[in-house]
């Protein structure tokens, strides 16, 4: 492809996210002659970003990622005009008109909600989107455009795994159960919003005031009391339920004296940087023994309880992560499950596969290749590329031709979404929080039931309206005014901020098996053909037969790229290999 330098310089590019991929992307865009770049990131620079987000230095910690990225790129590319904003792309001001002001949008994000939001706005604004992602050694770049090809949401993305609440609360048998208990249940119960219902609000806990700090109680005393309940008397209570232990090993209660919390142990060491450091536990890869976990638990709890509630869990918040590690390991001690180091627990709590800088760099290069095709009006030449962990036929890069729009996609093809739930138990609050926001990433939902509005979001609602919708949140679907939302009801859902409208059909199902469907609802109508799954399959099946070859081959035969070995791969080849896989 002949590159038109003037066109590249003129092209208006929006790069969303200035993290691992974003930094590489900005550098590559600038070095390829893009001069009209907007970058946006909501976050500030954290020490943990410095190993791979090379536009940032230690002195930048705490500063805006987007602004520092701009400053660093301007140093080696002063001709560029870079507009940098520290903002959340979901803000209302970044609307359809805003997106229309770009020739192409490039995503370097790390979460599904933001990716979906950008996808919806790109569809509305009819701007092509280059979407990307990396997990460790694997990565992918895909291209989306209204009508001509599949949108980002035409393929269903795997939903995060949820665990049955009874397993988490009473019968864990894997480290992940203990980590999820610590992070989702106990952390939220102790430090989260006091008004939120919790699965830990069992009768005995409420009666004993187990999670409530008493008037005048020190943080340390409170923590010890929580310890005695959670890891001691609660477990003793469970041991009385004989049926529970017929086919399982019985748990062992812990006592404060048994783990060395009695008498002398009172300190929270407020001067220390975090709870574990207060106890001299400096190696993040070491596995703490039970007594060390108990001490970290007490100190972390005593520190966190002094903060203003609600505290939300953040894996980069040291006290929070140390609390989670300690709780998880103490529960593991109860249940005979292997303990984890802080490092491993952090990986599990943050669903982290550690980032590989090289993968981010390769993916960013691929994004720019696709962006170049788009701004040269060669949308037909754009394609998906998967970066494989193991070479396939000697190649680490796997090109695939783009998918067609999926007629079942609710986002680009207006298809109806089906919600299956027990309408006598599922509340309107569940519908909004778990289904619309949680599963479908609708940012600011409005819901119409027949001719009446049952939900609205926005700063301009008056108090009465907010109260009215909150009262409805507590009702089950079948008890909503106007005859109730029952089997076959169709709701109209709308999100103005995403220019996204769809119909939601409700199907009632009486019986739910908590083990298999812990969420208590199913979404149907999405085509299960995850692009991730395709990449996964490519990696696994072909790794088996592939001979080892560590040459990284870049398979673009049209764009001149130096310093990288090139191989020829035309679209027919790509199609053939895709068919084979299917
Ligand atoms: N809604 C959003 N609006 C703007 N930027 C976002 C939004 N969601 C995520 N981001 C940004 O996308 C970037 C993704 O980068 P990356 O995956 O490297 O994450 P990170 O937070 O830098 O690193 P890590 O998660 O590994 O600590 C982050 O800088 C993050 O702040
Ligand atoms: Zn779609």
TrEMBL record:
Which PANTHER family has this protein been placed in?
SUMO-ACTIVATING ENZYME SUBUNIT 2 (PTHR10953:SF5), UBIQUITIN-ACTIVATING ENZYME E1 (PTHR10953)
Region named Disordered: 531-582
Report the source organism.
Ostreococcus tauri (Marine green alga)
Residues at the active site: 166
Query: Domain THIF-type NAD/FAD binding fold spans what residues?
Result: 6-411
Residue ranges occupied by any Ubiquitin-activating enzyme SCCH domain in the UniProt entry: 304-346
Residues that bind ATP = 17-22, 41, 49-52, 65, 110-115
Q: Where does Zn(2+) bind?
A: 151, 154, 409, 412
Under which name does UniProt file this protein?
Answer: SUMO-activating enzyme subunit
Q: Name the domain of life this protein comes from.
A: Eukaryota
Q: Which UniProt keywords apply?
A: ATP-binding, Metal-binding, Nucleotide-binding, Ubl conjugation pathway, Zinc
The GO annotation for biological process reads: protein sumoylation
Q: Which SUPFAM superfamilies match?
A: Activating enzymes of the ubiquitin-like proteins
Q: What do we know about how this protein assembles, alone or with others? A: Heterodimer.
Tell me the ranges covered by the Ubiquitin/SUMO-activating enzyme ubiquitin-like domain, including all copies.
419-513
Matching Pfam families = ThiF, UAE_UbL, UBA_E1_SCCH
Q: Which family does it belong to?
A: Belongs to the ubiquitin-activating E1 family.
Give the pathway annotation. Answer: Protein modification; protein sumoylation
Q: Could you tell me where the Acidic residues compositional bias lies?
A: 548-561
Gene Ontology CC, one term: cytoplasm
Q: Which GO terms describe its molecular function?
A: ATP binding; metal ion binding; SUMO activating enzyme activity
């Amino acid at each position: 492809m002949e590159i038109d330098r003037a066109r590249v310089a003129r092209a208006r590019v929006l790069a969303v996210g200035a993290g691992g991929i974003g930094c590489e992307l900005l550098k590559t865009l600038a070095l390829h002659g893009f001069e009209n770049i907007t970058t946006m990131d909501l976050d500030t620079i954290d020490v943990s970003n410095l190993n791979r987000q090379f536009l940032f230095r230690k002195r930048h910690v705490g500063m805006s990622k987007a602004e520092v990225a701009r400053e660093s790129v301007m140093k080696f590319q002063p001709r560029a005009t870079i507009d940098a904003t520290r903002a959340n792309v979901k803000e209302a001001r970044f609307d359809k008109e805003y997106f229309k002001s770009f020739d192409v949008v490039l995503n370097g994000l790390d979460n599904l909600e933001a990716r979906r939001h950008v996808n919806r706005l790109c569809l509305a604004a009819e701007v092509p989107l280059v979407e990307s992602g990396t997990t460790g050694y694997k990565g992918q770049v895909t291209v989306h455009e209204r009508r001509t090809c599949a949108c980002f949401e035409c393929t269903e993305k795997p939903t995060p795994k949820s665990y049955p609440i009874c397993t988490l609360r009473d019968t864990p048998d894997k480290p992940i159960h203990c980590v999820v208990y610590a992070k989702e249940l106990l952390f939220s119960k102790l430090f989260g919003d006091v008004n939120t219902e919790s699965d830990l609000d069992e009768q005995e806990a409420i009666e004993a005031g187990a999670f409530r700090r008493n008037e005048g109680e020190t943080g340390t005393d409170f923590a010890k009391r929580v310890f005695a309940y959670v890891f001691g008397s609660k477990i003793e209570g469970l041991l009385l339920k004989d049926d529970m232990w017929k086919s399982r090993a019985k748990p062992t209660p812990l006592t404060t004296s048994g783990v060395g919390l009695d008498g002398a142990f009172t300190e929270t060491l407020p001067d220390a940087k975090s709870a574990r450091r207060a106890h001299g536990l400096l190696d993040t890869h070491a596995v703490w023994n039970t007594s060390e976990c108990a001490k970290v638990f007490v100190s972390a709890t005593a520190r966190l309880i002094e903060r203003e509630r609600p505290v939300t869990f953040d894996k980069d918040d040291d006290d929070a992560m140390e609390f989670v590690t300690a709780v998880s390991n103490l529960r593991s001690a109860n249940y005979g499950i292997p303990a984890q180091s802080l490092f491993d627990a952090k990986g599990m709590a943050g669903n982290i596969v550690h980032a590989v800088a090289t993968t981010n760099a390769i993916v960013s290069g691929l994004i720019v290749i696709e962006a170049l095709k788009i701004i040269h009006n060669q949308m037909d030449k754009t394609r998906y590329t998967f970066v494989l962990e193991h070479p396939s036929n000697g190649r680490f890069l796997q090109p695939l031709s783009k998918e067609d729009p999926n007629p079942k996609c609710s986002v680009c093809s207006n298809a109806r979404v089906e919600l299956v739930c027990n309408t006598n138990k599922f509340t309107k609050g569940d519908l909004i929080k778990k289904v619309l926001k949680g599963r479908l990433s609708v940012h600011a939902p409005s819901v119409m039931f027949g001719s009446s509005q049952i939900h609205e979001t926005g700063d301009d609602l008056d108090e009465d309206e907010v109260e009215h919708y909150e009262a409805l949140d507590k009702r089950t679907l079948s008890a909503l005014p106007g005859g109730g939302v029952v089997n076959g009801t169709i709701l109209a859902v709308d999100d103005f901020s995403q220019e996204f409208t769809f119909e939601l059909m409700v199907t009632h199902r009486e019986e739910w098996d908590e083990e298999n469907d812990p969420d208590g609802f199913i979404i149907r109508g999405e085509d299960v053909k995850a692009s991730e799954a395709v990449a996964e399959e490519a990696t696994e099946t072909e790794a088996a037969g592939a001979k080892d070859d560590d040459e990284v081959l870049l398979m673009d035969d049209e764009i001149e790229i130096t310093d990288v070995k090139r191989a020829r791969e035309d679209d027919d080849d790509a199609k053939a290999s895709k068919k084979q896989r299917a």
